[in-house]
Design goal:
CATH architecture: Alpha-Beta Complex
Structural class: alpha/beta
Oligomer: single chain
Radius of gyration: 18 Å
Largest sheet: 9 strands, mixed
Number of helices: 7
């Protein structure tokens, strides 16, 4: 009988982060889940970690090294749960009862909650967000997607950083139902690909936003945001160079 939730974890050369993620999955009080790991042919201690948690891992896929969203799509194809959640290496559930507390309504297609980083700062707080097109309305680690959504399409791999946001805009455009819960779902690791490529993230988000929305506000907003992103990325680069000397 299919499980309620498929947990899809993508990893590459992040054995310590994978260990943290699998430990948090292992300690869930609700066991109605399957665990799928998609490994990008890691050359660190990932194999040892996978062996340590083999009792909870149902499927191990080898990624074709074509990007994180391609790997997530691989996990989708292997999944059988009613709901999918993407908890990548380094991320973890906020506590032992997260899966037990997932109770979406019968008409819900995307059930999403809250996330924090590892120092306790909430990311994408609900009371500070702008329009759905301006930034991720919620982190994908805090979202449970009905698997039937992906029968129509998967993540668009032409987006290397913002395919999750593009998917949310697509689902919103198609009229799928979103449901918010105040539950803290996940704690996520700093230094994801979107944090390290701010300019590209903004450009990709703008591409998706203008596809689904024609408002003049979209263009004005992203013109300003791109200037901010350029300054921010230069600042981060300078700080990184200073740290190395």
């Amino acid at each position: 009988m299919p499980k309620k939730v498929s947990i899809i974890t993508v990893t590459k050369n992040n054995a310590n982060g994978l260990n943290r993620t699998l430990r948090s999955i292992q300690t869930q009080s609700c066991e109605d889940f399957e665990c799928i790991v998609v490994d990008g042919n890691s050359i660190d201690n990932t194999e040892l970690v996978l062996n340590e948690y083999k009792n909870i891992i149902d499927i191990i896929e080898k990624d074709e090294n074509t990007g994180i969203y391609s790997a997530m799509n691989q996990g989708i194809k292997s999944s059988s749960g009613e709901w999918l959640v993407f908890l990548n290496a380094g991320d973890s559930f906020s506590d032992h009862n997260v899966l037990c507390n997932v109770k979406p309504g019968s008409n819900t297609d995307i059930y999403h909650g809250r996330v924090e980083n590892r120092v306790g700062r909430e990311l994408n707080p609900r009371d500070t967000r702008g329009p759905i097109w301006s930034e991720m309305p919620f982190c994908h680690q805090a979202a449970f997607f009905k698997r039937s959504l992906f029968k129509n399409r998967q993540f668009d791999t032409t987006y290397k950083i913002s395919a999750d946001h593009e998917f949310i805009l697509w689902a919103n455009n198609k009229g799928y139902q979103f449901e918010y819960t105040a539950e803290l779902i996940a704690k996520i690791q700093h230094g994801g690909v979107s944090e390290l490529n701010i300019v590209r993230r903004v450009l990709e988000t703008y591409r998706a936003a203008r596809f689904y929305f024609s408002d003049a506000d979209v263009h004005i907003f992203f013109r300003r945001k791109l200037l901010w992103a350029i300054k921010k990325q230069i600042k981060n680069l300078l700080n990184s160079n200073c740290d190395e000397h």
